[in-house]
């Protein structure tokens, strides 16, 4: 009878195991059967070098010792007493195989771009039974992984693969994620880990110091960047134009007004790409002309519109004035003069002021097309017996087509006639016409002289008298009324002169009036 029989055993591959078999008082042949096949005769198991029959033969001990159990030892064993025709109960030897060390694909460092989800795959191969896999982060098990098992060709071992998905919002660079694989052979499991390396484009900050800053002072730009992988290149530009002489993270420059409108940009590059950031400088600068006003020439009664635009920082104030006048006409870019008159002609100033920084101005001219305007001293002096002159000043846009002096029955436009000479001189402000008389006689002090100018818009006349220098001229009797033609009939002015002039004077006046009609 068997006093000891082999029992079902579970053993981890690589460990030794002993299957007991004791048959007291039996001295015949003992065989060990594995899955129905004899391993050898008696104690001779030379075909299985890891197998040995041990025990005291005289006491009937025939134990089977297996060194370093392997997967092929996973079988059913029996101990048989051949001459006694006895066999033990079948004993199942179950061999457990721990999984190989788990492997996370892409480890030990898994890199991904910022904003991308994390997909990890861990596989534990050649295990019996199949390995179970868990994922651990910061000591906590991560749920939601997917698993798949594959039976190997030997029909005994299996490989396990686990796939873990993590959304971008719950992963951080530097985190360590563990894959732990376990089965009955290794209850505590085997594990491996990866470190998460989140790569991103450079995160850039561009500082400007100091600001605000007055034009002409030094400003320092500093481009600080965090990047993974590291920064490989800094590139600077102003207003879109590359600054080739600067290559580091700092740019120093003396600023002018252009830095207020043309931004300075810093482009930082790493292996993933580039990030560009730009800043304008709050530069304080005096007025600079953006739209230069143009001088105008308009017809009488039309509107005149000047446009004047300035830039400046801080905000500027614009003032329109007429030169020589303290009256502010406009505080806007546009100056509109409605239905201009001839007295509106002149110089206009567009002035811009940036408080505590500076001021600037631009002058333009307004020319009004209309009839000539004559301004002259109505009584001019001369010495008896000397050369004398009388002058009239004519403003006219367009320039006068004709200027004539008339007295008595004489009309003279230019050149010399007897004692009289007419000369015309152009100036920046207008035309000066001079009537020169040689050898002044008393009758010259009794004559009325008329200066008349014409252009395409009309005419104007000025009546001038000559007075003896140092003397006084009286007048007696009635007066005769003369009308002077002006810019408008409503603006006609009148001059009165003594009636004691002779008939020639009357003819001269009538001749002049007829020419003006």
Automatic annotation (TrEMBL):
<comment type="similarity">
    <text>Belongs to the immunoglobulin superfamily.</text>
</comment>
<keyword id="KW-1003">Cell membrane</keyword>
<dbReference type="InterPro" id="IPR036179">
    <property type="entry name" value="Ig-like_dom_sf"/>
</dbReference>
<dbReference type="Pfam" id="PF08205">
    <property type="entry name" value="C2-set_2"/>
</dbReference>
<protein>
    <recommendedName>
        <fullName>Ig-like domain-containing protein</fullName>
    </recommendedName>
</protein>
<keyword id="KW-0812">Transmembrane</keyword>
<keyword id="KW-0732">Signal</keyword>
<feature type="domain" description="Ig-like">
    <location>
        <begin position="202"/>
        <end position="282"/>
    </location>
</feature>
<feature type="domain" description="Ig-like">
    <location>
        <begin position="99"/>
        <end position="195"/>
    </location>
</feature>
<feature type="domain" description="Ig-like">
    <location>
        <begin position="372"/>
        <end position="467"/>
    </location>
</feature>
<dbReference type="InterPro" id="IPR003598">
    <property type="entry name" value="Ig_sub2"/>
</dbReference>
<dbReference type="Pfam" id="PF07679">
    <property type="entry name" value="I-set"/>
</dbReference>
<dbReference type="GO" id="GO:0007416">
    <property type="term" value="P:synapse assembly"/>
</dbReference>
<feature type="domain" description="Ig-like">
    <location>
        <begin position="1"/>
        <end position="94"/>
    </location>
</feature>
<dbReference type="Pfam" id="PF13927">
    <property type="entry name" value="Ig_3"/>
</dbReference>
<feature type="domain" description="Ig-like">
    <location>
        <begin position="287"/>
        <end position="367"/>
    </location>
</feature>
<keyword id="KW-1015">Disulfide bond</keyword>
<keyword id="KW-0325">Glycoprotein</keyword>
<dbReference type="GO" id="GO:0005911">
    <property type="term" value="C:cell-cell junction"/>
</dbReference>
<dbReference type="InterPro" id="IPR013162">
    <property type="entry name" value="CD80_C2-set"/>
</dbReference>
<keyword id="KW-0472">Membrane</keyword>
<dbReference type="InterPro" id="IPR051275">
    <property type="entry name" value="Cell_adhesion_signaling"/>
</dbReference>
<dbReference type="GO" id="GO:0098609">
    <property type="term" value="P:cell-cell adhesion"/>
</dbReference>
<keyword id="KW-1133">Transmembrane helix</keyword>
<keyword id="KW-0393">Immunoglobulin domain</keyword>
<dbReference type="InterPro" id="IPR013098">
    <property type="entry name" value="Ig_I-set"/>
</dbReference>
<dbReference type="InterPro" id="IPR003599">
    <property type="entry name" value="Ig_sub"/>
</dbReference>
<dbReference type="GO" id="GO:0050839">
    <property type="term" value="F:cell adhesion molecule binding"/>
</dbReference>
<dbReference type="InterPro" id="IPR007110">
    <property type="entry name" value="Ig-like_dom"/>
</dbReference>
<dbReference type="GO" id="GO:0005886">
    <property type="term" value="C:plasma membrane"/>
</dbReference>
<dbReference type="InterPro" id="IPR013783">
    <property type="entry name" value="Ig-like_fold"/>
</dbReference>
<keyword id="KW-0677">Repeat</keyword>
């Amino acid at each position: 009878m068997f006093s000891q029989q082999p029992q079902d055993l579970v053993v981890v591959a690589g460990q030794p195991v002993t299957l007991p078999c004791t048959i007291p008082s039996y001295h015949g042949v003992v065989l060990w059967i594995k899955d129905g096949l004899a391993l050898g005769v008696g104690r001779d198991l030379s075909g299985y070098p890891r197998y040995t029959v041990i025990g005291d033969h005289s006491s009937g001990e025939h134990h089977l010792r297996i060194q370093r159990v392997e997967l092929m030892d996973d079988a059913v064993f029996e101990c048989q007493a051949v001459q006694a025709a006895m066999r033990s109960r079948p004993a199942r030897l179950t061999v457990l195989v721990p999984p190989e060390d788990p492997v996370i694909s892409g480890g030990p460092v898994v890199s991904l771009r910022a904003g991308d989800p994390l997909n990890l795959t861990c596989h534990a191969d050649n295990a019996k039974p199949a390995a179970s896999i868990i994922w651990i982060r910061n000591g906590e098990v991560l749920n939601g992984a997917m698993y798949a098992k594959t039976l190997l060709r030997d029909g005994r071992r299996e490989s396990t693969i686990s796939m873990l998905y993590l959304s971008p919002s719950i992963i951080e660079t530097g985190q360590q994620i563990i894959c732990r694989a376990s089965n009955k052979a290794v209850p505590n499991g085997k594990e491996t880990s990866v470190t998460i390396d989140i790569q991103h484009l450079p995160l850039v900050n561009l500082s400007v110091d100091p600001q605000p800053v007055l034009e002409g002072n030094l400003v320092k730009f500093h481009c600080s960047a965090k990047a993974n992988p590291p920064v490989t290149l800094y590139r600077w530009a102003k207003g879109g134009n590359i600054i080739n002489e600067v290559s580091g993270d700092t740019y120093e420059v003396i600023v002018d007004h252009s830095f207020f409108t043309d931004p300075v940009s810093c482009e930082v590059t790493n292996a993933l790409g580039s990030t560009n950031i730009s800043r304008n400088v709050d530069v304080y600068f005096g007025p600079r002309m953006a739209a230069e006003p143009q001088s105008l020439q308009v017809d009488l009664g039309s509107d005149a519109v000047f446009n004047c635009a300035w830039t400046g920082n801080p905000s500027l104030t614009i003032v329109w004035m007429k030169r020589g006048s303290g009256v502010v006409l406009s505080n806007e870019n546009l100056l509109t003069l409605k239905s201009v008159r001839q007295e509106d002609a002149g110089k206009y100033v567009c002035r811009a002021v940036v408080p505590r920084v500076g001021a600037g101005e631009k002058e333009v001219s307004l020319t009004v097309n209309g009839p000539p305007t004559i301004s002259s001293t109505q009584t001019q002096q001369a010495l008896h017996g000397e050369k004398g002159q009388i002058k009239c000043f004519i403003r006219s846009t367009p320039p006068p087509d004709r200027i004539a002096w008339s007295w008595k029955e004489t009309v003279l436009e230019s050149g010399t006639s007897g004692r009289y000479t007419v000369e015309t001189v152009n100036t920046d402000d207008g035309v000066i016409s001079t009537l020169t008389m040689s050898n002044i006689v008393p009758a010259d002090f009794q004559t009325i002289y008329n200066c008349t100018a014409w252009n395409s818009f009309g005419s104007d006349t000025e009546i001038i008298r000559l007075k003896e220098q140092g003397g006084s001229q009286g007048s007696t009797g009635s007066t005769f009324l003369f009308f002077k033609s002006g810019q408008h009939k409503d603006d006609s002015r009148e001059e009165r002169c003594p009636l004691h002039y002779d008939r020639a004077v009357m003819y001269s006046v009538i001749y002049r009036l007829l020419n003006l009609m």
